[in-house]
Design a protein that fits this description.
The complex is a heterotrimer of chains A (269), B (405) and C (169). Chain A has 269 residues and is of the alpha+beta class. Chain A has seven helices and ten strands. In chain A, helix 2 crosses helix 6. With 405 residues, chain B is mainly alpha-helical. Chain B has one domain: Up-down Bundle (Formate dehydrogenase/DMSO reductase fold). The model of chain B has no long low-confidence stretch (mean pLDDT 93). Chain C is an all-alpha fold. Chain C has one domain. The C terminus of chain C is likely disordered. Classes of the chains: A alpha+beta (269), B mainly alpha (405), C mainly alpha (169).
């Protein structure tokens, strides 16, 4: 008892209200204990219901979209990429519904962008699309506190927006600035590309297309409407077009020195 | 040394209620900001896809780092046995807890989905230092609460030393973790560094002691309690040591970076041509937050020990905010290198220094965290006995000689 | 003071636990400030994917379990996908335009508002169907019969019955 000093007498009789504390203290302590009890009574039903409500397994099919034996990747031939062309960007925006209609370039979504690279000593200029590189050792997956940023068995790096808390740490950690944050409400999302305010998003390599045997929208659009600079395929399959191509021609990854092993490679860069 | 008597402060004057109401208003303002940020989305703030963590995070980092350091006073008393600091142990624990709660409140309320806090508390990705930090912060709160209990329950005082040791080690790990949130990032040249962990620890000593000193002086003066020069002088000198430590590690950080040719870009940005960031670095962090407080505590320009300590503390806090602003925001506005040696441009602000201006919503949220921390301290010292009745020299100083002896 | 607090706690607990029992036992007495949800009848030829009582109790568990199957495993041929729910349970306003979750007539919202259970799905998922997409991608053969009917079904809230002719099946 802090107010006693050295004057406490243990020989005094112990009434219901101890003599060496004030009435105020006594009432306060009872208030605290009753409040704690009340809080327990109020919270207990909720805790019980939360514990009881466990999901039952649903009937699911055996086929899985994500095959661990595959590693999806892309190859981009920079020589075929025109500086003024951004067909891939528009195709992606259209396919996934992130068209920036807010005229706020700093905070609008950007899943893929055209980057112009100029060598200051030779003045040689190139243009290439940069998107999520789907690294084998993704820094964004390492830093996500909830595990929302994850790498699928087939190498595609995604954001599980069900558990994304919007902390944006993955955005800080990405060396390619591939991720963007949804800064405003979203309506009428594409059903195959859910996206919402307060979560982080990035290129999904069009998983909804890949899982049913298609190719990403950007690759398709480039092949149909532009220079055909983009190729998509299974890097683990030595007989796939992309594997044969990268075995024949020199290709490189952006910032290969970081050791994250991107799944997107560039030729003639 | 006399037995210390602790008591609640009076807390009935117009000064107390006025301050309480003011801080309450700031917290309400922050709540309003949070509501707007939640409802409209983060586009209303100055944060963007380029400057991802902004002013709220500057405040949050300051508060969390200071929280860890505020517990230092109690540690020096319990763990290192310096008797003069023992009476301040309870207040130290309270301030540490309050600052941490304030900082975490700002951090959580800035999340894109703060309604998913329970997800963050239940799903952990253990490769993430952020996830570890969540565990460390919650653990810190539990440990400090236990530490306060063993200090305040006289029968448990014998365990205060052990609780203090656990708390000391825990917060070293915690602050290392906080520094590593930035230090582990390879993607940003301003962050990727092992020195950030010890730098943050030194910062915590410095900022924590500064904040604690200001709160101590204000509480003692406000409630008319004696606060002797002995403890004020000691704290002043200690603050000087910590400030020097921060200056030293800052120098190491920048000198090492300068030796790496690839980091000359970011270093010249921070040190020379970064505009506001350069001004904040030299003017704010080095001069206001470093050299000036050192000059104040190690000279007798200011005669009154309390004013000296308070002035130095205010400057250290200002310098601390500048330091975190330069580190966090300066580190993000500088463009990331995709193609070393090349010039890049794009629609996503590649290759250019990003623009950032703190919005009112962010500043309001940050100040709300500060106000919340101070409110918790005020409520604590009013209803429980955290503050010693007297901190005059004869009560505190084990070496005090009565006048005339 | 002790007695007042205890009485308050007991009253509060009673209100929480006993009122639902009272309501359930005699439904005719129920009057509520929140309007009862208006659930459109399924048109002829279509049927629910499962018994309505089963769905009422378990739809959230199915959705929550299946979302990880799709998200993490890429399994897109599960039985009860959110997209299929939205496609089938579309509600149209007077002009025939599908309503989003902003409207209290929305299928999910009408029940959830009554039950006072907040749903988070539609912050990210579209709350009304994207018809062209559903048919184009040709997913989930198990729902083909219902999906094929979607363009031909005209759900209107007022009549609760389809205006257009229902196709085969």
């Amino acid at each position: 008892m802090s107010n006693c000093g050295s004057k406490c007498s243990s020989k005094a009789a112990k009434p219901a209200q101890p003599a060496d504390i004030t009435q105020f203290d006594f009432d306060r302590r009872r208030f605290l204990s009753v409040s704690a009890a009340a809080a327990g009574v109020v919270l207990a039903p909720g805790v019980m219901l939360y514990g009881v409500g466990a999901p039952s397994p649903a009937h699911a099919h055996a086929d899985h979209g994500a095959d661990a034996s595959k590693r999806w990747g892309m190859l981009i031939d920079v020589n075929k990429c025109d500086a003024d062309c951004d067909v891939c960007v528009h195709a992606c925006a259209d396919e996934n519904g992130w068209q920036g209609t807010h005229d706020r370039p700093a905070s609008d979504a950007q899943w893929i962008r055209k980057v112009t690279v100029r060598d200051p000593s030779t003045n040689h200029t190139q243009s290439l699309p940069v998107m999520c590189q789907h690294c084998a050792e993704p820094p964004c997956v390492d830093v996500c506190p909830t595990g929302a940023s994850f790498k699928r068995a087939d190498g595609i790096v995604l954001v599980d927006k069900h558990i994304c808390i919007g902390c944006r740490y993955c955005m800080v950690a990405c060396p390619y600035k591939a991720r963007s944050f949804v800064h405003e409400d979203v309506q009428d999302q594409k059903t195959h590309a859910p996206r919402g305010k307060g979560t982080v998003e990035s290129c999904t390599m069009c998983v909804h297309r890949i899982d049913v045997g298609g190719t990403p929208a950007c690759v398709e659009a480039c092949a149909e409407k532009a220079g055909g600079a983009m190729m998509f395929g299974d890097l683990n399959d030595p007989t796939s077009d992309i594997s044969k191509h990268i075995a024949t021609y020199a290709t490189r990854q952006i910032r290969a020195d970081l050791g994250v092993d991107p799944g997107v490679r560039y030729q003639n860069l | 040394m006399k037995r210390i008597i602790y008591s609640q402060i009076d807390g009935t004057g117009s000064g107390f209620y006025g301050l309480f109401a003011f801080l309450g208003a700031v917290v309400l303002g922050a709540a309003f900001s949070v509501y707007n940020m939640e409802h409209a989305g983060h586009w209303i703030t100055g944060m963007s896809n380029q400057v991802i963590w902004g002013t709220p995070h500057v405040f949050a980092i300051f508060l969390i780092v200071a929280a860890s350091g505020a517990l230092n006073v109690a540690s020096i008393g319990s763990v290192f046995g310096k008797k003069i600091y023992k009476p301040l142990g309870r207040l130290s624990g309270l301030v540490a807890l309050a600052l941490l709660l304030g900082g975490l409140a700002v951090l959580v309320l800035d999340l894109g989905r703060p309604d998913r806090l329970i997800v963050a508390m239940t799903k952990y990705n253990f490769t993430s230092i952020f996830a570890w930090n969540i565990i460390l912060y919650v653990g810190f709160m539990v440990i400090v609460a236990a530490y306060l209990w063993v200090q305040m329950e006289r029968r448990m005082n014998i365990y205060a030393k052990y609780a203090g040791l656990v708390a000391f080690i825990w917060r070293l790990i915690l602050t290392t973790g906080t520094g590593s949130i930035l230090g582990f990032i390879v993607a940003r040249e301003a962050f990727d560094s092992a020195v950030l962990a010890p730098l943050f620890i030194t910062m915590s000593f410095s900022f924590g002691l500064a904040v604690f000193s200001l709160i101590l002086i204000t509480a003692a003066r406000g409630d008319g309690r004696a606060l002797g020069d002995a403890v004020l002088e000691r704290m002043g000198k200690l603050l000087g040591v910590f400030v020097a430590g921060v200056l030293y590690l800052t120098a190491v950080q920048h000198l090492t970076n300068l030796y790496m040719a690839k980091r000359v870009g970011i270093e010249s940005f921070i040190l020379l041509d970064g505009g506001i960031y350069t001004q904040l670095f030299w003017g704010g962090q080095v001069i206001l937050g470093g050299l000036l407080p050192l000059a104040i505590v190690y000279s007798t320009v200011i005669k009154n020990a309390a004013v000296r300590l308070a002035a130095a503390s205010v400057l250290v806090i200002a310098g601390g905010f500048a330091q975190i602003y330069v580190l966090l925001i300066g580190g993000q506005v500088y463009p990331q290198t995709l193609f070393p040696g090349m010039e890049v441009s794009s629609s996503f602000f590649d290759g250019v220094v990003a623009e950032y201006a703190p919005s009112g919503w962010e500043v309001s949220l940050g100040l709300g965290g500060v106000a919340l921390a101070l409110l918790i301290v005020m409520v604590g010292i009013k209803f429980l006995s955290f503050l010693p009745q007297s901190m005059a020299d004869e009560d505190m100083d084990p070496h005090h000689k009565a006048s005339g002896a | 003071m002790h007695r007042i607090v205890l009485t308050a706690i007991l009253l509060f607990a009673a209100a929480n636990f006993l009122t639902p029992a009272a309501i359930a036992s005699d439904e005719s007495v129920v009057t509520s400030a929140v309007p009862m949800p208006v659930v459109p009848e399924a048109p002829e030829g279509t049927e629910c994917v499962a018994d309505p009582d089963f769905m009422r109790l378990n739809h959230m568990k199915l959705l929550q379990h299946d979302r990880d199957l799709t998200m993490r495993d890429g399994n897109r041929s599960i039985d009860f996908s959110l997209k299929e729910c939205v496609d089938c349970h579309v509600v149209r306003d007077a002009e025939g335009v599908a309503v989003t979750v902003d409207s209290p007539q929305h299928f999910c919202r009408s029940c959830h508002e009554y039950a006072a259970v907040k749903i988070d799905c539609f912050s990210c998922h579209a709350s009304r169907p994207e018809i062209e997409d559903a048919i184009k991608l040709g997913q989930n053969p198990h729902q083909a019969s219902v999906r094929d009917l979607v363009p031909q079904i005209d759900w209107t809230l007022q009549t609760g019955a389809p205006k257009a002719e229902v196709g085969n099946e």
